UniProtKB/TrEMBL annotation:
GO terms for molecular function: NAD binding; oxidoreductase activity, acting on the CH-OH group of donors, NAD or NADP as acceptor. The gene is serA_1. This is 2-hydroxyacid dehydrogenase. InterPro entries: D-2-hydroxyacid_DH, D-isomer_DH_CS, D-isomer_DH_CS1, D-isomer_DH_NAD-bd, NAD(P)-bd_dom_sf. Belongs to the D-isomer specific 2-hydroxyacid dehydrogenase family. Residues 115-287 form the D-isomer specific 2-hydroxyacid dehydrogenase NAD-binding domain. It comes from the Bacteria. Keywords: NAD, Oxidoreductase. It holds the Pfam family 2-Hacid_dh_C.
Amino acid sequence: MTRVQVAVLDDYQNVALEMADWSAIADRADVTVFSDHIFDPDALVARLAPFDIIFVMRERTPLPRSIIERLPNLKMIASTGPFNASIDMAAAEEHGIHLGTTGGTVASTVELTWALILAGARNLVSESLSIRDGGWQVSVGRELSGRVLGVLGLGRIGARVARIGEAFGMQVIAWSQNLTPEAAAEAGATRVDKEELFAGSDVLTVHMKLSERSTGLIGAAELALMKPTALLVNTSRGPLVDEAALVAALEAKSIRAAALDVFDTEPLPAGHPLRTLDNVIATPHIGYVADRPYRIFFSDAVAAIAEWLDRQ
């Protein structure tokens, strides 16, 4: 049997081979790990052309029809998580390409959300940099207890974020298109209208799935409703927020700050204003980048590849 060629894409930390036991496919496959990211479609196709199996981490490298149709050797895509919106499933099916998915956890994203909320409330970045630069106190933080936490999207992640907000002594309000008052109450939140969510929140945290309906859900009109003291947190997907409108609001200081883990284009381009604005805390999409989810991702992906190879 000819050895199968497997490409692991966007392994930024170069940890793929140590996060799982790859011995189940070692006698049948050669695994090549790439730790860089390619934006250019032609360069991406040239890189992937020799490979039978591509392992993609979340949406780091999209695989639209325009890419899939130029990879005649591709027989399987392994993707972390139960679903990857950046893969054209119809194109993959039409070309007989098998899709393997994995399990995962949501705890790491919940934890990062609260790390960003606390960092934004207590100005941890500027205070830490002041210490590093030889200084001392430079700001007055904002206590969360008694303030309003707004949760946009009260699913598996949003509900956990809401319960932690309640533990901090915050009043929790929530909205999404299909949210009922009863479902909100189960997470310790009060269901409000969309306008009230934006106008009333001291901290607004976003936990929606990206879809045609939700893209650009937070635009200039929604940002204009927010308090000038409000903190916007997004650990979900960048395009949920109109990025140009957000930059304009931050530059005008019509909201106090944003804490962001996700962006329209990832990796975030050099020179982007969200890299330099002093009222932005930015992390490089690390909500799921933690030991436990990584071990689940890579172990399940190896198992999916091994199962596919067993059937050949």
